[in-house]
Amino acid sequence: MRLQNRVALVTGAARGLGASIARAFHREGARVMLADVRDEEGTVLARSLGERADYLHLDVASEDQWQGALEVTEARFGRLTTLVNNAGIYRLKPFTEITLAEYMQVVGINQVGCFLGMRTCVPAILNAGGGSIVNIASTAGLEGIAGALPYTASKHAVVGMTRAAALEFATRGIRVNVVCPGGMATPLVAESFNMSLESLRSVPAEWSPMRRMGDPDEVAGTVVFLASDDSSFTTGSVMVADGGLMAGVPGGPQ
Question: What are the residue numbers of the active site?
Answer without folding.
Answer: 151
